[in-house]
Protein 1
Amino acid sequence: MSIVIFSGTPRKHGRTRQVAKEVAEKLDGTLVDLSEGSLPMFNGEDAQGQNETVQWLRKIVEEAEAFVWVSPEYHNGMSGALKNALDYLGSNHFKGKPTLLLAVSGGGKGGINALNQMRTIGRGLYADVAAQQMIFDPDDFIGDGRLSRESEEKLQEVLSGFFPVQV
Ligand SMILES: Cc1cc2nc3c(=O)[nH]c(=O)nc-3n(C[C@H](O)[C@H](O)[C@H](O)COP(=O)(O)O)c2cc1C
């Protein structure tokens, strides 16, 4: 199964990127790393279709059979970078495709807003959004920015429930 993983942080050292990278490794999927900054702001102009990153994004998403969206919680919401990327895409890319939602927060019960907003947008794109979801707090990480063993096992459990053949 071909899986595309969206890393929604615009920050190169964002924890969201770390989670998304681990998910991409575990699932042998393709990572869309929005911290690379090569995706312009969507403006609806046809000329944007000539942009290499836009073309690449549309191609891999069209070919993908499933998705993982990983967003940071920013100001009680999902990241603007992820919403911008999704605005280049449509229900023709996502309709009926299994989609798992993960959020990364600053703690203090953050993350649920990003998850709920992604769920609403997934509905708008006719994605088959999983009921299961997961939030990563600062406590889920160890010194070098990697996931702690416990959190990694929890992630593994969620992924193997959702992608049983892949993990
Ligand atoms: C602009 C901005 C707004 C943030 N707002 C929230 C918030 O509302 N709630 C929260 O739990 N964490 C918030 N955080 C912390 C992030 O969720 C935290 O840094 C987490 O690691 C995910 O972001 P990252 O992938 O960019 O590191 C915010 C961080 C930034 C940069």
Protein 2
Amino acid sequence: MSYLFPTYARWDVTPSSAKGAWLTDKNGKKYLDFTTGIGVCNLGHAPEQVKDAVEQQLEKFWHTSNLFQIELQEEVAKQLTEASGLDLVFFANSGAEANEAAIKLARKATGRTKIVTFTNSFHGRTFATMAATGQEKIKTGFGPMLETFVYAPFNDLSALKEVLDKETAALMFEVIQGEGGLNEGDQDFLQEASALAREYGALVVIDEVQTGIGRTGKPFAFQHVGLDPDIISSAKGIASGLPLGAIIGRKELADAFSPGSHGSTFGGNPVSLSSAKATLDTVFDDSFLAQVNEKGEKLVKSLKEALSSIPQVKGFKGKGLMIGIELTEEAGPYIAAAREKGLLALTAGANVIRLLPPLNVKEEEIEQAVSILTDAIKEKAYEKTTAGN
Ligand SMILES: Cc1ncc(COP(=O)(O)O)c(C=O)c1O
């Protein structure tokens, strides 16, 4: 009997402790965690420098409210603006809340209401961000959505031209669609789409909730593809597992977010911010990010060597340490087999095994993960092939 609404299809794993890339369950079984709380614990579980910073903040004060001058908010906002090239920050508590803020800001700043997003996108589970999401399964049963969201197929410029117009407040997208299947936006498409949006006077809003904070080997994924957004949203990895979200935007938008226009009781909580400050100090360092790229390349190379010959393995996707293995069939049974053998991985869309290891994962942990995954995939693929005969 559970006292919880059954909103999640939970695994049969009950964590008792977690450190670095490892999670131990209540039976003492150890798992190599390549889910990192769905791209959240970018420095692994309980990183020492973050733990120290949070403990120091807990000694000072936990919560006041946004009626006060919170120095840590200024400090973390400075880190985020310097890393992104944007100017001003609003703090929220989650990815969906950050996207809500982005949507409200884009509408108020432009005086328009229409927002164009892409099919297979994912922007969150609040009402507006659910409506923004380009996946029917997320919306089923909730009745009419907000009419002002319009969807275009990803990577299709002529289709986008059909829907962008002078009524459009914003074009909103992920550079790599995370939940939708690790679908990468083509550089040319994203640049032309953004330029077109601007021609109509619409803002370019990039959802960096999953791709940001070093996950793809740059502070933010838009920096791989030469984009120049007006607003980006961030959450997940920003505070190593304490709840925090943020939007970072251009200073020209400041008037639309004047006092009283938007807010959050918990947004920019000092404890979460102490965690964010210590996390970003490490993650936004150039040499740290160079290692994320090296490790990502190593992981993909090892995966290709080990898995390419398996007929059910269709290909490899992603950037930095946001990696997908695309299968010819549903990924769920394969990640269940890997979990059984001690590796935690995720799905993305129906057919992709998604790996989001800690950004400071060790070489030997990468090798171990590839070895477990190879055993699991080979075993499942063999079972499926023989079952079909
Ligand atoms: C791209 C993207 N945007 C928004 C969200 C929603 O974030 P949260 O679950 O923190 O509300 C997610 C979560 O997976 C995401 O991947």
